[in-house]
Sequence to fold (71 residues):
Amino acid sequence: MLELNLAHSGYVQVTIVNVLGREVSRPVASWHQRGTQRLMIDADYLPAGIYFVRVVTGDGFSQVRKILLLP
Fold:
């Protein structure tokens, strides 16, 4: 689960990138209300390892978080 606190309503895109910088998934690409949003991300199909979750919103906010998927 990914929790976001959005300052404004708008488009949100979440991408999962592997350590080589290749996009492996785009689980969220939709419009969301402002406030706290809890987004479920299904990564069961990805092998164990280190990934980066990139969050970009329509108002220019961008953040990258590192995650570790375990088997």
The chain has one domain: 2-69. The mean pLDDT is 93.
